[in-house]
Specification:
It comes from Rhizoctonia solani. This protein is mainly β and 527 residues long. It is 13% helix and 36% strand. Helix 2 (21-27) packs across helix 4 and helix 4 (42-53) packs parallel to helix 5 (67-81).
Length: 527
Amino acid sequence: MVALSDLPPECIIYILLFLVPHEIARCNMVSRSLWKIINHSPSLQYLLELERLGFMAPHSSSNRLSLDEKVQVLKEKRLRMNTSDPTAMSLNTYDYKHVIAPKFSRSYMSHGVLALDGQNEPNQLGIYQLSSRNRDIGFDHYTLDSLPPHQAIAFEPAFDLLVLYDSTDDGEIFHLRSLRTGLPHPATTLPRVFYAGDNATGSRVAQIDNPVVIIGRRIAFVRCFTNSPESIIKIWEWTSGDTISSTKVLGSSFAFLSEDVFVVRTPLSWTSQSTLPLVVYTCDGIPPGGHARLLARFHLPESRNTTVLHSTELLPASTSPVCHCDALLTSPSLIYDLSPASYYLALNVSLLTGSGGGPGTLFIHSSSLLELACSLNTQLNNDAEASVPWSEWGFITSWIGPPDLKTASEYGPGIFGHLASFMHADEQMNVWRVEVYDLRTTTTTPSELPPKETSHFPRNQEAASFFGDSPRPLKNPALVKSFTIPFETIPSKRAWNPARYRRPMEIMTDDEHVVILLLYIPGAIRY
């Protein structure tokens, strides 16, 4: 019988490629000869670097770079992430760009592409492709002119898909276009889709900021009504136009855990329950166009005498674009991708406390919530919905509270996968501080010890105590990067006219960029 060490190196590498990365790393300790083979194999080093960074190999890998070049890019990224002082972030020349764009009405960002809607003209779209080491592309900008009238957009660069959404009391109109050309998308059989209104209440259709979501092969939209707590969430397949489900829900704030499963935030003002639930639905196993099946209700803690839950809202967050539809991928190939376990939901939570009030963000691990909802439903044999108290699911969440400074302005979070970015004004230092948190890495402080401070600004700990009913300590995401921008670059809030600009700045993020959109100076972008 031939021993493993007697095989040629290429055979050993072939065998090791069948192992998961952490098992490959363990093989480094078996023998000196095996360590040498692993460390001289670009294919094995590539997998190990992905593992160290918490990434996965993409479904569509870049062929323009050799494995050695990919490994080098990953090592450089890891080196910059692992600086001993997270505030000592040096900005290279390719990290910073200042763009002046014409006036626009709405802004969107997805996977390294920024879209400014209503640029110059109501039906014009400005597209800004940000430079990317991961995609091996440079900065690019172009405009899409003479688009159909629309109230909102959604887009997915991985599929070259642009969705233009328009809503009236009669129904919704969707135009499916190419993000590159603005022409009808070649992968869809119906480039224009109309859904007739389904309004039994007689209320007018209400407008909301983010009514459309793309998740893999599917598009979801919510139809809201004035003076009514109910909304309708419709899901359909954009390649065929087939309706998947149509579901009446209480509330209009929703997010997806997978192509089949979504979660809805119940509005506080429309529930008589003592605790506010997040309601999880699934489209799996329902007839075409049917009502999604309720899986579980996940309750937040009850209000207390000193801390009262004022409002909640699910914030727009990134989702994995692939979802078993590799044939639709058209974007530049990647060096690395986020694993499904790297995505989080973000729930904006406003609490009224004895020291005041302010919004914080509860981050919910998407895959854990999905697994918990499905397992509970299986235990009940799909016959009844599960009702889950906070004490039984709080361990899959983490919390970033509001700054505990009355004079501090905070913008964010900008969310992408496991990253969340915030921006604060530090008037003593005359700078803006940008902080990036890794939601996968937490700093947990025992209840008997003072909380560990990671942010430059102290966080409201009275608000954090609201979530202390869980048996496990509340997780606090670790600050992994921080940098400052002088007020000379971005004027301080004293230079703004608050009566004219409701949101003078917006912060967005992805795996490589932090984008700061200055709304008070027409179209200034910095990233």
